[in-house]
Each structure stands twice: as structure tokens, then as C-alpha cells.
Amino acid sequence: MPTWRKYLADGLNAGTGIWILGEKFIKSSYYQFYYGLLSHPRLLEAAREQGYKICFMPHPTIQPHLELFHLLDEIEVYGIDTSYRDIYAQSNLILTDYSSAVFDFAYLRKPVLYTQFDKEEFFKGEHVYTQGYFDYERYGFGEVEYDLESTVDRIIEYMKNGCQLKEKYRKRIDNFFAFNDKNNCQRVYEAIRNLI
């Protein structure tokens, strides 16, 4: 579930509203990393052996350009019509780079893995995202990996262990969320009522 890098596009097609991706995108570390990950023989073999399916939830900007990835039939692609609720319910592990969407996944006490292969480039100012207080290694809900092989190793490690959340990250999650019950809607409702 990767985020997007606006600086990798060659512009926006004014007629369609679709970002134009060309040679700059294909040569980018972003493309090279995700292409390599989604076609990595060791990862795909481990998924088959352990009974897991590799699913790809590309950013909506990339969805019109999926043919660039030459995805194998065994990779399931989640389109923009796939609900996050379904993804969270069906997934055993989520891999992202910087997406805040994983907060909801962590709330379910499921493992999260971050891959930040382009951290220096990402935070140097060309992207709309700026580095804030959230230090992924210090506060994140899972390991942070910085290259393809380490990322593949870590995913395989999780698959071999049934994608169990590690105690270190369970404690972080428990300490991060103030509540772990089914009463969040009630609390929001009460807070709104108290405003009136």
C-alpha cells in the first residue's frame, strides 16, 4: 500500500485528469523497488509455500498505469473501488512506506511493515509530504526496512510466523491508542452533543 511521489510524474493530462508517467517514472527508485518487490522470486515462492497471496493496492494516481508493472497473474490488485474496510479485514500484514492508512490496521492489532527505500529523496522537499513528529523507527507499529532484500526477508519472516504481531509492536499500539473497545462512535456522538 505505497504512497505517491508527485515529483515522478511528467505532468497532468488536462483532458483526462490522469497523471502522465514516462521514462522518469520507470527509472525511479520507486518504480524499481515496487516492480522488484512484486516480481521477487523468493517472495512469491514463500507466499506459495506458506499459503499467502500478495496483494497490491497502488495509489489511485498509479492505477491507470498498472501495465507498467507487468504484474504476474498471482498478484492480486486492489482497485480504487476496493474498500479499506475489506482490505483490513482480509489482510494479515500491511506493507507501506509512509501511509497513515495503516493506523486503522494497527488498531486491529495486525502487523505493519514500513519500507522506506527512498527516505532521503522523499523528505528532501519535492514531495507534498514533510517530515513531522512521527519517527517511524521510534513510534511506528512495525519494523522499518530500507532496501528490497531486507523488505523481502522481513515479509517472509512474518509469513513463516503466521503473520503474528510482535509483542514490541503490540505494546506500542496499546500505548498509542487511548481506547481499544467498540465505543468510539458513542464517544464521538457524545462529544458532538456536548458542543450543542
Short structural summary:
With 196 residues, this protein is mainly alpha-helical. Helix content is 41%, strand content 7%. β3, α5 (102-107) and β4 form a beta-alpha-beta unit.
How would you describe the overall organization of this protein?
- The structure is a single chain.
- By secondary structure, the chain is mainly alpha-helical.
- 41% of the residues lie in helices and 7% in strands.
- The strands form two sheets. It has a three-stranded parallel sheet with strand order 3-4-5. The chain has a two-stranded parallel sheet with strand order 1-2.
- Helix 5 links the parallel strand 3 (94-96) and strand 4.
- Helix 3 (41-50) runs parallel beside helix 8.
- The chain is globular and about 55 Å long.
- The model has no long low-confidence stretch (mean pLDDT 91).
